[in-house]
Design a protein that fits this description.
With about 190 residues, the chain is an alpha+beta fold. Helices cover about 20% and strands about 40% of the residues. The chain has four helices and ten strands; from the N terminus they run ββββββααααββββ. The strands form four sheets. The protein has a four-stranded antiparallel beta sheet with strand order 7-8-9-10, with helices on one face. It has a two-stranded antiparallel ribbon with strand order 1-2. Strands 3-4 form a two-stranded antiparallel sheet. A hairpin with a 2-residue loop joins strand 9 and strand 10 (about 180).
Length: about 190
């Protein structure tokens, strides 16, 4: 988890500043074309054992190793990708499919993923990054298929959907400088 002075990142902006100088919480919410600032109170439907934390991601360019032992330059921050992901979830299934990880496409196929994404759009979707973990190895396990992957970033996000607040763990992998995501697109392709 990356902690920077009590800041929480939301879709490319700062969710809140906490500390002696902060009198209130200000939210910057990801939108399709711009970010807007407005006061917000959030309520969580997470179980009592869950805790909230304030986090921020580094926005400087850095390098990581890829599975092929080459070095990939990060040209897109998690916050920038979150803005794109929200845009896709609100009404752009082509964007969602274009940024799916190849492992998801290999399991389900692009056509099935596009159909699934088209059926799950919600123009009111909001995502907020709560926590950003380290990159590392991760087993993508879906529909009894396990795909081991390296250099995968684990994130905890708060998702506002259909009037509910959900806490979800997401995984993204950097491919050629851009983050890709994983999803369940229905039934796996035969064979």
């Amino acid at each position: 988890m990356i902690m920077l002075g009590g800041l929480t990142i939301v879709g490319g902006g700062i969710l809140g500043v906490r500390g002696p100088a902060a009198e209130s919480e200000t939210t910057v919410v990801a939108s399709r074309s711009t970010s807007t600032t407005s006061p917000r109170q959030t309520t969580s439907t997470t179980p009592p054992s869950s805790t909230s934390s304030t986090t921020a991601a580094q926005t400087t360019t850095s390098t990581i190793s890829t599975t092929s032992s080459s070095t990939a330059i990060i040209t897109e921050t998690p916050e920038e990708f979150l803005i794109l992901l929200v845009e896709g979830l609100r009404g752009n299934p082509d964007l969602l499919v274009s940024r799916l990880n190849q492992a998801t496409l290999d399991i389900y196929g692009e056509e099935q993923c596009r159909e699934t994404m088209s059926q799950t759009l919600d123009p009111e979707t909001e995502l907020e990054i709560r926590e950003i973990g380290e990159t590392g190895s991760w087993d993508y396990v879906i529909d009894e298929i396990t795909t081991p992957l390296d250099d995968v970033l684990a994130l905890e996000v708060q998702r506002f959907v259909a009037g509910q607040t959900l806490i979800q763990e997401l995984h993204w992998q950097l491919v050629e400088g851009q983050w890709t995501w994983f999803s369940d697109c229905g039934d796996p392709l035969p064979g």
